[in-house]
Amino acid sequence: MLVMTRSSRFAGVVRGAVARRGAALMGICNVTPDSFSDGGRFLDRNAACARVDELISAGADIIDIGGESTRPGSKPVPAREQLERVLPVIRHAAAHGACVSIDTTSAEVAAACLDAGAHAVNDVSLLRDEDLARVVAGSAACLVLSHARAPQEQMRGYGGWPLGAYDDVVVDVVVEWERAAARANELGVDRSALVMDPGLGFSKAARHSFELLRRASQLVARIAEKGEVPILFGASRKSFLTLVDPKSAKSDPADRDGASIAAALHAVRAGVHILRVHDVRATRQAIDMEIVLGTPRRKI
Which pLDDT band holds residue 102 (cuts at 50, 70, 90)? Predict the structure, then answer.
């Protein structure tokens, strides 16, 4: 009898969503007091569980739950505190049949959340702690490796990274990501259980993030050269989007939803497999409208 592992469940959800819509939608649930867009809104357990229900109803394929903010300048949150925030919410999401990822850089948090029903670990540190890969391998889960060069607490404001830090941001990000992927493989995580995230906003100036988005199709092609893995983009509400609307830099991040949806559509056209978004319903409607209108999209 075929046994469904955590990674096969995650991969199957992504494949199914790509076949239906071109990309899977990963809805964000920040169980934090200080996330850049919705910090504090879902810190209460009941509010967080209601957020999960809302995301599922809106059409999210994956629910990404985190108990530690990754905004620029954010401080690490102890594992015990993260677990107090997220474990009840992960259990709620899993009980409602959701495919769940835990957004953490802590191996301790990852292990407990996988035991509680999560299917993937979303690591925004590019495997700074190799124990994280060992935990994922031991649980037969998926590992999202998000590109970064340093912890977010070293970011000096939004987009606060030197412009000259990259020779060619697409080439450099792919090379550094592949190194981390090779390390993960050595530690027991098969390439088929990896997801690539270029880390928009992480160790990047705004121009770097914008260039990665603009050249998404090139990034997709370069990753495929080494063996295709799902690629995730998380542009939603991030500060680099204010390059097209500078006035929105000082307003509520939700005021960037128009640019966020345009970024999502561009990413789908470029072949990106997973979109991490705040507004699942609006993003889904935009993608579905393009399909109804007959806009060409890639075949799988």
Answer: very high
